[in-house]
Write a structure and sequence with these properties.
Blueprint lengths: L7 E4 L2 H13 L7 E4 H9 L5
Parallel strand pairs: 1-2
Amino acid sequence: AEHTRAEVVCTACPYCSIMIDDGIKETGREEKLTTVDVAQLVVQAMDTSGK
């Protein structure tokens, strides 16, 4: 993810999310990278509260 300058890693697997979060924390990249569930990403994309 770092090489692509991604800010979000998206996964539908809860176990993968935990493992990815652990990797982000171990490498000290919490400020630059976050893990999001696919459902959360869809909700964010559909958010119309700003209209």
